Amino acid sequence: MDLFCYRDGVLFAEDVAVEHIAAEVGTPAYLYSRGTFVDHLHKMQEAYHELDTTICFSVKACTNLHILKLMAAQGSGFDIVSGGELYRALQAGADPAKIVYAGVGKTDEEIIQALQARIAYFNIESEQELENLGRLAQRYARAEVKAALRVNPDIDYQTHAYMTTGKKDTKFGVDIERALAVFEKYGRHRPVRLCAIHVHLGTGGKTIDPFVNAVEKILPLIDRLRQQGHEIEALNLGGGYAADYETQTVPSAGQYAAGLVPLLQDKGLKLVLEPGKSICANSAILLTRVLYVKQGGRKRFVIVDAGMNDLIRPSLYGAFHFLWPARVDSRFVPTTRSQKLSLDGCEVVDIVGPICEGADFLAQDRSFPPVQRGDLIAVFTAGAYGFTMSSNYNSRPRAPEVLVDGGRFQIIRRRETYEDLVAPER
Ligand SMILES: *Cc1c(COP(=O)(O)O)cnc(C)c1O
User: Fold this and answer.
1) Which of the four pLDDT bands, split at 50, 70 and 90, describes residue 155?
2) Residue 178 C-alpha to ligand 1 middle, in angstroms?
3) What CATH fold (topology level) applies to the domain 4-32+281-425?
């Protein structure tokens, strides 16, 4: 799961007590575990090694340059969704031959940048986009341009409505019938070689079933396309593999692969995967400090110094994050990370931030050990869509990012200053 564990009631990130880091960098702060990143990437690479697989880490889940460098050095490619992410990936030393580019609204500028960088595949989401790519490729391409058609297999991924992308009536991709027509119309055109299928079902699901269903719908499509003379070299299964927001409630990389690899063996397809949160969610905690404790009506509130501007997932998606104090008595050492964990002596509280919004909470009606002003609290599984979705709302400088490696740690993004807030307005 990850390398954030209690030792004698004190929370450690790898071999460093998190309170030690807080004393140095302040709170709120994102703390990443290098070992957890590498472990998750390696497990995924290992799980699919029987197939010709490229793992393309989804940059939007965790964009820090140092993290991308680390992933690139371990052989990861990248899934990008904007020109800014392309820039980051290249700055991190990514191999362009392992970059895939998705997104329904790529601008001309972004497409030209990606053409010039010679990325591996453009994941195409509409016919107009494909035509535009062809037009720009004629002028700017310096090598063969390959595209994957994003197909929407109409699968209910059973997650929050904002996190499902593989249903027929989302804005993403084209449906299966339309895919045949798109290949018929554009499949033999150059300079863009349409030679792969991309699917991305969504994020936040907890079983492998949607992936198996998607592959079972896509393989017959690929067969038909091949019968019609189209050369299909790769299948990109997107991202959306689950992370352990709670202890052992979702499939491991090995379990996903056990369901998927047999379906894809001997199909003459390269496999591309775009994992985001399954790699990075467990690789970080958000560390925050208790400012005040107060009673409001019948509710008990713990007010902390991290708000929805630092971590928006609870407010935006109703997402569950396990929270726990960074130092506890032996009777409060958590035995598991679960929505249901309740230990003798816990009290029910809402843990809320300082932002002027009713939606600014990290946890509601949570059974929690008694805490006091000044105590540190860890928000677990905060490495995906945590810092990357943070903002300056309420003119709050964004938190620093710290990378822990064994017994050492390094600031990989400094805390923003007030001057950073106003610099673009000067
Ligand atoms: C966001 C996204 C991903 C990553 O999703 P996770 O749930 O973080 O694994 C992969 N591919 C595409 C196209 C995406 O938009």
Assistant:
1) confident
2) 23
3) Lyase, Ornithine Decarboxylase; Chain A, domain 1 (2.40.37)
